[in-house]
Amino acid sequence: MKKITLGTPERFTPSRFCPTFHHEESDVSYPVKDITFAKTKRGFLIKLPLQKGEHIYGLGLQLKAFDLIGKKMTIRPNADPMAATGDSHAPVPFFVSTKGYGVYLDTARYAEFYFGSSRPLKARDKDGKPKEIAISTEALYSHNDTADAMIEILIPSVDGVDLYIMEGDTVGKVVAQYNMLAGGGCCAPEWGLSAIYRCYSRYSQDKVLEMAKYFREKEIAIATIGLEPGWQSHAYSCSYVWNDALYPAPQKLLDELRAMGYHVNLWEHAFVHPSSPIYEKLLPYSGDHEVWGGCVPDFATSEAKKIFADHTKTLVAMGVDSFKIDECDSSDLTGNWSFPNHASFPSGLDGEQYHSLFGTLYMQTILAALGDAPTLSEVRNAGALAAPYPFVLYSDLYDHRDFIRGNATAGFSGLLWTPEVRDTQSRTKEEFICRLQSNVFSVQCLINAWYCEEAPWLAFDCEDEVKYWLSVRESLVPMLKEAFDRYQNEGIPPVRALVFDYTDDAETYRIDDEYLFCRDLLVAPIAAGRDEREVYLPAGEWVDFFTGERVAPGKFTVTTDGIPVYRRVK
Ligand code: GAL
Predict the structure, then answer these.
(1) Which of 143, 237, 382, 483 is most buried, judging by how many CB atoms fall within 10 Å of its CB?
(2) How many H helices and E strands in the chain?
């Protein structure tokens, strides 16, 4: 991997906040001499060469985009990305190419990427043809490809940036190096890989217990119970204190849940309400804007991190195993909440930088509270160099097709994604089961019933099917555990697009609705509302995961009310 410093990089970059950052310098065959840069009025402009036939992936969790060639993307953290603009719960300034290289730009700025969507002016004759005479057939017919295009990247407000260029003969090997740069992928405890059920927000502790008993009586394989905002005395902003009215004896509840074999997850976000015991202590270490009437702790200061982590430790000591750290992704496109980009923080970070680093610094703070206790938690914002954090991204806003695409794109940038199942997404039993199936074959099996007074499947009268699919999930846990070990040691993500392993197969370049799961499974979910789809299996030997029957590679149509899953045997 080669580090190239262009201009003078700024002080606050993702690598500075990554304690496990590890770079080993080596030469690359990438044409470094073809990289140019300039300081312009709009920011720091970098130009990189683009080859003919090149395909590009990454820039974080992309729910609306896959192959980025020909696209303009501006990476900004946002809770509600609506189109393929680069807005994301977890934008990352890293991309990987099918031509055997990847580039990480160490910046916390909202950079603009033009992947061959812009071309330099060329002298043309009156018919619009380039004045240079094309002398080869290839050149004559090249007007529709990216042969004369380039990658242009504009980073606002900086005078320079460090680039890291890594190479490998597959997309997977390049991404693995990016993950190892951050210190490798995270590991996950087995219980975190079993299913989690998030209870209705306004449940009382008795009702939570009732649900917990119901799962055990019916042998519905739930390992973790998640509590939503109602557990707190104030939730928007947060007090991080139990709500006496609904939870009069929280320790008793946690003890009873533990005795039944459950793990417990608590919802929160980092905007701190004045009634919170940590509010006054945090004020000197908070940004200069409030959100939902609460202060915004600056987790880039050791003081804010410690005050917040110390309080969180009291919850951990009660028996809490994981957290859902919500609302840290900001909103420019719909609700317009969160602090502005010009906010300033005591560490010296501005609002733009803090938005890019917020999720990561918040995850570090929660991990400081959890100590050595293994966890698999949830987060709504992450960014660069996030592979080492055992947190899964989620959201409930998208259609099923976007959820599936998230499974294929998250792994390009060191991120984990769950296409969570939520009651209000599903209008029919078929849709509910379909969503559950794709969730069972994802990093985290999450039923988010925060808005639903009863278990969502009761409305569809499909308890037996839910029971069956969650038992399938249980059977996948050892395989997932092994996949996480590989993620940690080698940087290969547990869920990844086909192009990771099959970079020499051009058929895979646009497949964003199938993905590789653990070492050798290929999952091709059927999107809600359909009962058949076309599946592509790359060259090799495959068997049907459920029946064990041999399946020939290539393209074929599958009709099923289950989920098409195949196992690679060679
Ligand atoms: C949303 C989150 C939901 C739920 C809700 C509670 O931001 O995506 O899953 O937790 O907050 O208010």
Answers:
(1) 382
(2) 11, 28
Which residues, in sequence order, are CB contacts of 228 under 8 Å at separation 6+? 198, 199, 200, 201, 267, 450
Q: Is 530 helix (H, G, I), strand (E, B) or coil?
A: coil
Is 517 found in the same domain as 474? no
Ligand 1 closest atom vs CA 397? 8
Pairing state between β 263-268 and 150-155: unpaired
* pLDDT digit string, tens, across residues 409-443: 999 999 999 999 987 667 899 999 999 999 999 99
Closest approach atom of ligand 1 to CA 395: 8
- How many A from CA of 231 to the centre of ligand 1? 13
CA 427, 430, 432 angle in degrees (round to 5)? Answer: 60
* 85-94, 118-127, 186-195, 473-482, range with the lowest pLDDT: 118-127
Nearest partner of 481 among 222, 184, 193, 223, judged by Cα: 193
Pocket test for ligand 1, best of 89, 197, 228 (most atoms within 8 A of CB): 228
Q: Does residue 130 belong to any structural domain of this protein?
A: no
Ligand 1 pocket residues where CB is under 6 Å: 228-229, 267, 326-327, 395-396, 448, 450
Total number of domains in the chain? 3
DSSP SS3 for 447: strand
How is residue 187 written in tokens?
Answer: 């590991």
Question: Rounded to the nearest whole angstrom, what is the distance from the C-alpha of residue 318 to the centroid of ligand 1?
Answer: 23
DSSP 100-131: SEEEEE---S--EEEESS------B-TTS-BS
Range 232-238 average pLDDT: 98
Q: Domain for residue 312, yes or no? A: yes
Mean residue pLDDT across the chain: 95
Residue 96 to residues 55, 115, 384, 510: CA-CA distances in angstroms? 8, 12, 14, 14
Q: Whose CA is nearest to atom 4 of ligand 1?
A: 450
For the CA of 201, the nearest atom of ligand 1:
6
- Give the DSSP H or E segment for 544: strand 542-544
The answer to whether residue 126 sits within a structural domain is no
- Give residue 512 CA to ligand 1 midpoint distance, Å: 27
Instruction: Indicate if the pLDDT at residue 63 is higher than 60.
Output: yes
**Could you tell me the two tokens for 399?**
């259609």
* DSSP-based three-state secondary structure for 312: helix
Residue 256 identity (one-letter amino acid): E
State the CATH number of the domain containing residue 102: 2.60.40.1760
* Whether residue 301 has pLDDT greater than 70: yes
Question: What atom of ligand 1 comes closest to residue 236's alpha carbon?
Answer: 12
Answer yes or no: do 283 and 336 share one domain. yes
